[in-house]
Amino acid sequence: MLKDNWFIFKDTDKISKHLASDILSIANETVNKHGKFSIVLAGGKSFIKLYKILRDAKSNWQNWHIYLCDERCLPMNDKDRNDKIIYDVWLSNGKIPKKNINFICPELGINYAIEHYELLLKKIRSFDLVLLGMGEDGHTASLFPNHTFNKNKSVVAVNNSPKYPKKRISLSYSRLNKSKNVFKLVIGSSKSKALSLWIKGKDLPINQIYGEVEKIYISEDALKNKS
């Protein structure tokens, strides 16, 4: 049986609309209380419809502060970089000030990029919201199964990713857990096997991050386990 914080939706359109509504509600409430809202974005195709909805929505955009779960070590403007996709789909509309957009910069070199992002994150104690997707193997961000990372680091290097490209930079489990809300998005039948393992209690990267409040948004086809 699924827990009360697991929500099932018929398709990607419905799940994206509901998730966008929840994000905007938290953002508006947080800005009204504290004057700013911090959100960690995830890469991946599952989030494109969500980001398009947010692009066209109304909010106190000048008070939003954007961060990134992980980035692939590829040249600037490479079509497979998370920041490129997110910028093209959403942030290029200019509603959120550029100074509020805090992306990972692997073009600086992996070690300096990690140091740079570590310093940047020191100014924020806890995120207001973290978005996470799940891969077919249960990974999230660039935190893969059977990989170990320094628990004392906020940002970690991934040198042997099982997916292209092998080199990546990711926020760590401990840093992603420093969030008031963690929203997880699971879309597509290809995720059904990992989702089934998650429901059965197997330790996977996706269930090692939960923040203070956790919500899981799932499409119906992801629940159809074909294994």
Determine the mean pLDDT.
96
Profile the largest sheet.
6 strands, parallel
Helix content: 25-40%
Continuous helix count: 6
Describe the structure.
This protein has 227 residues and is of the alpha/beta class. The chain has helices at residues 12-34, 48-55, 82-89, 110-121, 173-176, 192-199; strands at residues 6-9, 37-41, 64-68, 70-72, 129-133, 155-158, 168-171, 181-186, 213-219. The chain has a six-stranded parallel sheet with strand order 1-9-8-5-2-3, covered by helices on one side. Helix 2 links the parallel strand 2 and strand 3. Helix 1 packs across helix 2. The protein starts with 5 loop residues before the first strand and ends in an 8-residue tail after the last strand.
List the helices and strands and how they pair.
Elements: E1 6-9, H1 12-34, E2 37-41, H2 48-55, E3 64-68, E4 70-72, H3 82-89, H4 110-121, E5 129-133, E6 155-158, E7 168-171, H5 173-176, E8 181-186, H6 192-199, E9 213-219
Parallel strand pairs: 1-9, 2-3, 2-5, 5-8, 8-9
Antiparallel strand pairs: 4-7, 6-7
Helix pairs in contact: 1-2
